[in-house]
Amino acid sequence: MRIRRIPFDIRKAMKVGADFDFRWAYDEQTSLVGLGYSFYLEYIEYFCNFVSKHSRGLIADEGLLDLEHTFLVQEMHHAKAHKYLNSFLCPGSIYKDQFHPRVYPYLHEFHVNHYEPILQRVAKGEREGVRDALLKIAVFESKNCISSFIFFEQLFSGKNFARTCSISANLGVLYLLGYHFAEEIEHCDVAIDVYQHIYQEPVWNKDRVRTQVMQVSHSEHEALAAALYCAKRLGVETDARRLTASPFMSYTKSRQIELIDADFDLNSPQILEQRKHYVQQWDEVWEPALRERVLREIESRTSCA
Ligand SMILES: [Fe+2]
Ligand SMILES: [Fe+2]
Questions:
Q1: Distance 133 CA to ligand 2 centre (A)
Q2: Contact of 66 with 72, CB cutoff 8 Å
Q3: Is residue 192 part of a domain?
Q4: pLDDT tens for residues 12-42?
Q5: For the chain, how many structural domains are there in total?
């Protein structure tokens, strides 16, 4: 696993300010969903950071501790980069408490209902609280790996890359999500290994597939709530039904149902092959090409100004 750095000023690349254009993807609904994910992911990254501080002591394997550290560094870099976009889209006040430094207003209800009670138990050092928190992270990372597959498949694979680059009105947001999803694919198995190492039981079983994948989870509402906020702020018409029906969300859900079963393993040959393929394509093909386009665009805007 490597710690990647965004090789330019991501604020300039995303045109944060008067020139901001939210249409980074091939359709408006997917573009809004991507902005919603930006808030949801930043929220979860701080959750992971808090939990890590209280769970690292339970990891007895040095190699796994190193991987967990890299995982966390990647996550905190993501949070920092997303903060530039999120604080621009949500310039008002945000909540902060002893468990989480940045809770956006439309995520506050989810924080109070689904995360804060766990974090309180984690802070008290309750083993079962830490277990619930690590399980939440492992489930999130498993599902997010599949979301990342869909992202690269729909936007970057084959001829889609050239098409996406020519349609996108915000290559900076596209880059941010590409960089982020590549690292998500790269580190997702660490969260599962940490849970399984400490608690000596598999993350996935029949019951968890039913409750976390087949049923609609609160996490899907979190991304939607943030996307709806963005739509309102940007003056774009939408609703939860249209966002859920967007190609990105609908394919993600059906692929999660297809791939995540009771024996789901992020390192099974079928999944591992896809993980390696997308990370390699990002590092060797898509990232260099996208970087060049972004740099050219920043340069031409700077010289026109
Ligand atoms: Fe992340
Ligand atoms: Fe992650």
A1: 14
A2: no
A3: yes
A4: 999 999 899 999 998 999 999 999 999 999 9
A5: 1
